[in-house]
Design a protein that fits this description.
The protein is an alpha/beta fold. The chain folds into 2 domains: about 1-100 and about 240-275, 3-Layer(aba) Sandwich (Rossmann fold); about 105-240, NAD(P)-binding Rossmann-like Domain (Rossmann fold). About 40% of the residues lie in helices and about 20% in strands. The strands form 2 sheets. The chain has a 6-stranded mixed beta sheet with strand order 2-1-3-5-6-4, with helices on both faces. Strand 11 (about 210-215), helix 8 (about 225-230) and strand 12 form a beta-alpha-beta unit. Helix 1 (about 15-25) packs across helix 9 (about 240-255) and helix 9 (about 240-255) crosses helix 10. The radius of gyration is 18 Å and the shape is globular. It binds 2'-monophosphoadenosine-5'-diphosphate. 2'-monophosphoadenosine-5'-diphosphate binds next to helix 6. 2'-monophosphoadenosine-5'-diphosphate binds near residues 130, 188, 191 and 198.
């Protein structure tokens, strides 16, 4: 049997086993997929022990181990290099461990699945943490015409822009975001999880906005998406689709098979709404 796992701490809440078992069923694969909680300083040991098992092909990695996974693996994936964060490990046939960050591809695929036009888009990305870093290269690869980064701490946005895609990412302060006139607005901060907005929002900001995207999800629409919708965003999407798409990209790395994400998103939405 092909063996997979997700490492995190805490990990009890993870939906990854549910998602990957649905993919496996669709793709006629029989897999095991466990949740493994490692101690804060024990990720590498735990990952090595897991991956040394016969049949273990890879694993996912979540908080707080994404940097440990980046340091542990051989990383050629640009998004993972930018983020200095790995969410997917794959063991090759010669036993080497490769690291990827599939979050950005997950975001791009979810936007495209939901009809967003990224080629030629003007994208405003709010927040400059690891989540923002990992999506910059995939958004640029999707052909956006401008990518603008805004953050509470402006200097941090400038550092992220310079380190990931020098000359290709604009930086603005949060007080100037309405001037960007974005067609896509993405909130990469986790402010919504605390019921907070990442910054002041206005109807001017959403004048040309086809889609507002919040990378987190909750049972209810997030405060960011509720406000964006009121202020004129034509469409709103939360991060549940991104969660499923990043998992699908990992599943494809491991098995070379492409699961049908649509039905998995529908099933997960039901699950999450009932929580
Ligand atoms: P992650 O790795 O998940 O992106 P992070 O590295 O802690 O998390 O980064 C969080 C980002 O969201 C940061 O850019 C942070 O702004 P600062 O750089 O000024 O700290 C931003 N952020 C978090 N909570 C926020 C809030 N309530 N309002 C505005 N920005 C917030």
């Amino acid at each position: 049997m092909k063996k997979f796992a997700v490492f995190g701490n805490p990990i009890a809440q993870s939906l990854s086993p549910t998602i990957h078992q649905m993919f496996a069923k669709q793709c006629d694969e029989v897999i095991s997929y466990e949740k493994i909680s490692a101690p804060d300083d024990g990720f590498i040991e735990a990952a090595e022990a897991f991956l040394s098992q016969e049949g273990a092909l890879g694993c996912n990695v979540t908080m707080p181990f994404k940097l440990d996974a980046y340091n542990f693996a051989r990383v050629e994936d640009k998004a993972a290099q930018d983020a200095k964060a790995v969410n997917t490990l794959m063991k090759t046939t010669n036993g080497e461990v490769l690291g990827f960050n599939t979050d950005g591809v997950g975001l791009v695929n979810d936007l495209i699945n939901n009809g967003a036009k990224l080629a030629g888009a003007s994208v405003l990305l709010i927040g400059a943490g690891g989540a923002a870093r990992g999506v910059i290269a995939p958004l640029l690869a999707a052909g956006v015409s401008t990518l603008t980064l805004a953050n509470r701490t402006l200097e941090k946005a400038q550092i992220v822009a310079d380190e990931t895609a020098p000359g290709k990412v604009e930086v603005v302060s949060l007080s100037d975001i309405a001037m960007v006139k974005p067609t896509v607005v993405i909130n990469s901060t986790a402010a919504s999880l605390h019921g907070e907005l990442p910054c002041a929002l206005s109807s001017e900001l959403f004048e040309r906005c086809d889609v507002a995207y919040d990378m987190v999800y909750k049972a209810e629409p997030t405060v960011f998406l509720t406000e964006a919708s009121k202020l004129g965003a034509k469409n709103t999407l939360d991060g549940l689709g991104m969660l499923v798409e990043q998992a699908a990209a990992a599943f494809t790395i491991w098995t070379e098979k492409q699961p049908d994400t649509k039905e998995v998103v529908v099933a997960l939405r039901e699950l999450v709404s009932a929580q």
